[in-house]
Amino acid sequence: MKNDSMKTKTAKLMAEAIRYDRGDARRIQHFVKVHDLAAAIGILEGLDEKTQRILETAAILHDIGIHISEKKYGSGAGHYQEIEGPAEAERLLRGLGGYPEDEIERVKYLIGHHHTYHEIQGLDYQILVEADFLVNLYEDSSDAQAVASARERIFKTAAGRRFLDDMFVEEL
User: Fold this and answer.
1) Residues 123, 51: contact at Cβ < 8 Å?
2) Averaged over 91-107, what is the pLDDT?
3) Is the pTM higher than 0.90?
4) Helix ranges restricted to H, the chain
């Protein structure tokens, strides 16, 4: 996979992640939406190619720890996902091959922190959190107060705020 273009590599990872979550259409739909929004925000915010690749990889795999967490702890809560997700992501990425060590480590870091909203370090981290919030606010049928609170507390990028405002305009 070393010579694959970014799009091909992302498509292969997406296919493997879908296979991993086989039979769980809700979670598959979730990570596909998070990926697409994160990819768009990253492009609009001008991420360099490497950071964009890391962001998109992490967005696809951000919730990979849910199934293990549910089995191990009886809960898929964010804290447990952060504990279990990085090792599972590493296993999957190494199985696919072609991912540089520093990128695997950053993806693991992002997965291990994507439910930690204080001290966000890096635009890739910020965008992953924003994309996940965009999808979660919709999937959870969040009210106007929750949307406004998320906008104030979480959203920092211009593209992320624009997407939030456009998606939830009647709630603001």
Assistant:
1) yes
2) 96
3) yes
4) 6-20, 25-44, 49-61, 66-73, 78-96, 101-111, 123-139, 144-153, 158-167
